[in-house]
Specification:
Layout lengths: L1 H18 L4 H22 L11 H22 L4 H8 L2 H12 L6 H18 L8 H23 L5 H22 L6 H27 L2 H7 L3 H13 L5 H22 L1
């Protein structure tokens, strides 16, 4: 999960920089194509393409359609509202993930997990303050991404029961490359040298962040892994302040403290 967090924070900046210059679909397509190249050494080490067979192809397709849509919404939201707000709204995701994991995966929500989710969501509300003004289109798009990510995480967790991590990763880059090729060609603009640099960062972080997340889901329940991801909120706020001079106020700091406290409680409960 530490690897996931580091990659996602870096990709947040790279995603904003690239998407502000070329279309979201083009960014997604180039990310997937780079992901195929970056993943190939791991595929080859695992025995090559012949070992990538899966009995769950339909589930892989469903997962990646959902994830592709969520990722497009997330990248678009990065260009519309502050980084900390994008990540904070995204953290309505644990509500949906917890419901889906209990309903479809047979996981249990104990006292520690429930407390972690509640504290995390209270922290998100403190940061976003949704009752203080009009909800923007960027916030609604970020919320759509959160729901999509929750569905994707639940499907990944179910896939780890039968498929190896490298197989899940392989089908992610292949299916999403196929999904994005037509809209990317239709909206194609040749990237500048600086944008190519950001695209390489997105390709690397996008590929290996999911390797880290899938490994985490392999070793722990989704209801443990997902609350740990709350740390992205204070990390995104810090990144927005350092890179874009986005203000961090007292309420943002208070919300981050609640989120961190929830994660610590969740980790404590996981050790029992």
């Amino acid at each position: 999960m530490a690897g996931w967090l580091a990659c996602i924070v870096v990709m947040t900046v790279a995603g904003r920089e690239a998407t502000s210059r070329i279309s979201v679909f083009q960014v997604m397509e180039l990310r997937s194509l780079m992901g195929i190249v970056l993943l190939y050494p791991l595929v080859r080490r695992d025995g090559g393409f012949r070992t990538m067979k899966t009995p769950n192809l339909k589930r892989h397709v469903l997962r990646n359609i959902v994830h592709f849509g969520a990722q497009c919404c997330w990248l678009l939201a990065l260009t519309l509202i502050p980084l900390a707000q994008v990540i904070s709204i995204e953290f309505t995701m644990p509500i949906w993930t917890a419901i889906l994991a209990v309903a479809f995966l047979g996981e249990r929500m104990g006292v520690w997990k429930n407390t972690a989710v509640v504290l995390g969501l209270v922290g998100v509300v403190v940061i976003v303050r949704p009752f203080g003004g009009e909800v923007s289109s960027g916030q609604l798009i970020a919320l759509a991404a959160a729901v999509g990510y929750a569905m994707s995480v639940t499907l990944v967790k179910s896939l780890t029961r039968t498929d190896r991590v490298i197989v899940i990763m392989f089908w992610m880059v292949m299916i999403q490359a196929a999904l994005g090729v037509i809209p990317a060609i239709a909206l194609w603009q040749w990237p500048s040298a600086s944008v190519w640099g950001w695209l390489v960062v997105i390709g690397f972080c996008g590929t290996y962040s999911h390797w880290c997340l899938t490994q985490a889901l392999l070793h722990a329940d989704a209801t443990i892994v997902v609350p740990m991801d709350f740390l992205r909120v204070p990390l995104a706020a810090l990144t927005g302040w350092l890179v874009y001079a986005e203000r961090i106020d007292l309420l943002t700091a208070a919300g981050a403290a609640l989120i961190l406290g929830g994660n610590l409680l969740n980790l404590k409960g996981a050790k029992r």
